Fold each of these.
Amino acid sequence: MKTKLSVVVSLFVFMVTVDSMAVEWRQFRGPGGQGATSEKNLPLMWSDTENIAWKRELPGYGASSPISLDRRLYLTCYSGYGDGGTDAGRMEDLMLHVVCISNRGQFIWDEHVEPKLPESKTVRDHGYAGPTPATDGQHLYVFFGKSGVLKFDLDGHQLWRADVGENTHRWGCGTSPVLHGDLVIVNASVESESLVAINKVDGKEAWRVGGMVASWNTPHLVDVGNRRELVVSVKNKILAFDPATGAELWQCAGIEDYVCPSIVSHEGVVYVIGGRQSKAIAIRAGGRGDVTGSSHELWRTNAGANVCSPVVHDGHLYWVSDRNKVAYCVRLTDGEVIYEKRFPDQPYASPLVGDGKLYIVTRNGGTYVLAAKPKFEQLAHNELDDHSTFNASPIVADGRLFLRSDRFLYCIDR
């Protein structure tokens, strides 16, 4: 009897654990920064009157995506100045926000962060809350560019604040923090042209490397055997580091332009896109030194995006370019472009793949749902009566889709 009871209890604990894992979206683009979910039965169609579980007005603007942990959502905003990417108001009134909302749409807390001024007078398109937070399940880590990296507990109490540089840019700060062991790692290209690792416990700098030139690229952790490499794309180079020490491992000739799209990976291969010239590059991680032209460089192809990141699904890369408004499907093995299809609207958000669907959130034209297969097929086009801009990437938590605009956070259910 005890044995049977133990089995039942163990099964229940396992099911609860799996359910808890399923609802968590802990960093920019979710698990591994890949923009992919294994959840099923995701919503296909919605409107202002259909399949909207709830809609909440936010205390400020922002391009950051929400993250999800233990049935709570966390995101950042700004208010008081530069609303919607303009220089309206007085800079002295600029306020940064870190917000917690329940997965039922109830506000739990809104903590204000005083910015370090002067900020960039005008931030084109993105505003002052671009980076997405990250959590290790116990604390929250946010990045506000010149205003620093901050640690909060999950009740909204600020625990420390670390400086990573004083510079600003008219495009603002857009790189999101990634977590590795006891470190918070940020690409502070705008602020100091540095990649900076900060100790999670005390907020002190653990290591810093330079050379982060013209990069709005969130660093990517890729598994290579039983270890990890930290890869970041900067102007002209793709660089890999030991995430524990900051020691450079390898480099490869990269995108000959400023870089925004995040890197994705599959089976030890990193895929890098970017640039106004539209390029994509595949490199097998694990090399040493300059691997340009070596066996680690697998292919290069003329397909890319200026802002939007790709996703990996079933042997292919998918994305929609914000630059030329073209939807791409590229084969992983050799870089062959399987399709390039003219797209009706411009995205800045990166795509989400799950349940056989590609979700493409455009800035002002709604969300398109495409079939996640190497043949272009539009499944749905969903529009909302929201006259602000959608720059944030979508997330999935507990089988529901979450979209963030400059004005609202939407929970979309089936």
Amino acid sequence: MCFTAVNMSQDTTYRFSFGPWNISEGADPFGPEVRPLFPHESKFALYRPLGFEGVQFHDDDVVPELETLTPDQILKKTSEVRTMLENQGLTPEFVAPRLWFPAQTVDGAYTSNSAIDRAYAWDRTQKCIDVARALNCKAIVLWLAREGSYIRESKNARVAYQRLLETINQILQYDSDIEIWIEPKPNEPTDQAYVPTIGHAVAMAYASNDPKRVKGLIETAHALLAGLDASDEMAFALAHNKLASVHLNDQNGLKYDQDKNFGGANLRGAFNQVRVLEEAGFGSKGEFVGLDVKAMRTQKGHGVTAHLTNSRSLFLHLVDKVRSWDRQAEAQMIEARDYEALELAILKHLMGVK
């Protein structure tokens, strides 16, 4: 076993993205908004100065109230947003159908027991794909937020998975170029969700009619909520060439989805995520490093962005840590199975201690 030391500059190929909802007014389920309204379209001018060039979208981030508009009106509004992005030098990374807010999806969208509600979900998905293509965006994200149950006996899980696969195949047939990125999460808002891990998502991809176009998007917090190591989840997807993007953040235990700053709760866990991405060459094909982080509710200001710049900065610092790590010494400790020494060396490296 032989590794060589890696010493590289911070001149990376990494591109960064976030969704406009990450610059929010600071509302939560227990209180009102605490910062002034900052419309999505006003946020695009902030991206490039902050070091970001990719924009993540929900369908109604692009076209508010799209369900009340005609197809021509939807395309007109999408064209306006596309022009805004082009003027700012921004790239739309993906568009996701928001299938967890409408009344029709309270018991699921694609897996609802109601055929009428399932038809609604498919219609909304078609609109989302049309928006993505008009925006010159290559991918849609399926966060299967309400595809699960509160009472396990209320749904047939086997049938639910069949319906999800049928939907994936419908999407692939509806548009011959679009990619589907599945974003797994084990719970919240449902008690238990279908497709809770990247392993489930990859299985769905392989079962689909066009596996090359079905991939995964891994969020740090979602993996941790499943009791899994986020870096291992990323490694699994990378081993199958199925990691389309990431949502980096952090999570303090098995709680609600906190979307804390990347590395804010577990710096070593963040290091391992960066290491997995760096060693696999993630980003070399143009993939974005996405952030999904919330500003602290106590943060004051208008257009609050420190949580985004801090997370991006921490990522780049950890890239340097990965590249300056002594791989030869690591190989020797692994060969000797001296994992106590390896752990101490890693921690001292992260702390900058010789």
